[in-house]
Amino acid sequence: ASAIFAGNFIKAPQGYKIYLLASDREETDEGYGFRVFLEEEKRKPAFAVVSEPSGLKLALGQRGRTEFTLVAEGIPAHGSTPEKGKNAVYMIIEAANKIKKIRFRRIRPFTNTIVTPTVLGTRGDGINALPSACSLYLDVRINHKDKIPVIRKAI
Questions:
Q1: Cβ-proximal residues to 11 (8 Å cutoff; 6+ apart), any chain
Q2: How far apart are CA 82 and CA 63, in angstroms?
Q3: pLDDT tens, position by position, 111-153
Q4: Contact 94, 117 (CB under 8 A)
Q5: Residue 23 vs residues 30, 34, 35, 42, 109: alpha-carbon distances, Å
Q6: How many CB atoms lie within 10 A of CB 130?
Q7: Residue 133, number of CB atoms within 10 A of its CB
């Protein structure tokens, strides 16, 4: 409501347009409304104001965000003879343990880049067999100075 009210008092500088976006699904599909806006309007914004709670204090910026999905390809085998296959779950666990140890440096004024595993999935023939694949979704919050290729290499 405060953003809508404030919009009455904002005058767009020469050469700029001001848009007010009100979108939902922020936690379940982060960025959905903004993504649709960018696709439909074919615009690249110069600035953005995000109405996130900050204790009524002006906060500078927002970390960037990207996502990766790691996929381990296993060799299926019956659960009673796991030695005949290659367990993709163990491969993903090993990768997750390495990711847990990654530390990016803090570059002020923001916090450091953070890599967080959030969704784990398997693909296979059933609950009594080693999966043919295991995937791990990584939610990555990026400091303003870190670059995606560097992060990808660290992961």
A1: none
A2: 43
A3: 899 999 999 999 998 899 999 999 999 999 998 888 899 999 9
A4: no
A5: 10, 8, 10, 18, 28
A6: 23
A7: 17
Buried b (16+ CB within 10 A) or exposed e, 32-54: eeeeeeeeeeeeeeeeeeeeeee
At 28-80, the pLDDT tens digits run: 766 778 888 888 888 788 777 777 777 777 776 667 888 999 999 999 999 99
Residues whose CB is less than 8 angstroms from the CB of residue 30 and which lie 6 or more positions away in sequence, other chains included: 65
Partners of 69 in the β-ladder:
137
CB atoms near residue 107 (< 10 Å): 13
What kind and span of H or E run contains 56? none
For the entire predicted model, the pTM comes to 0.70
Two structure tokens written together for 41: 């309007």
Q: Where are the alpha helices (DSSP H) in 30-136?
A: 32-41, 88-101
> What single-letter amino acid sits at 65?
R
Amino acid type, 13:
P
State the Cα–Cα distance between residues 34 and 52, nearest whole angstrom: 15
Cβ–Cβ under 8 Å, residues 64 and 141: yes
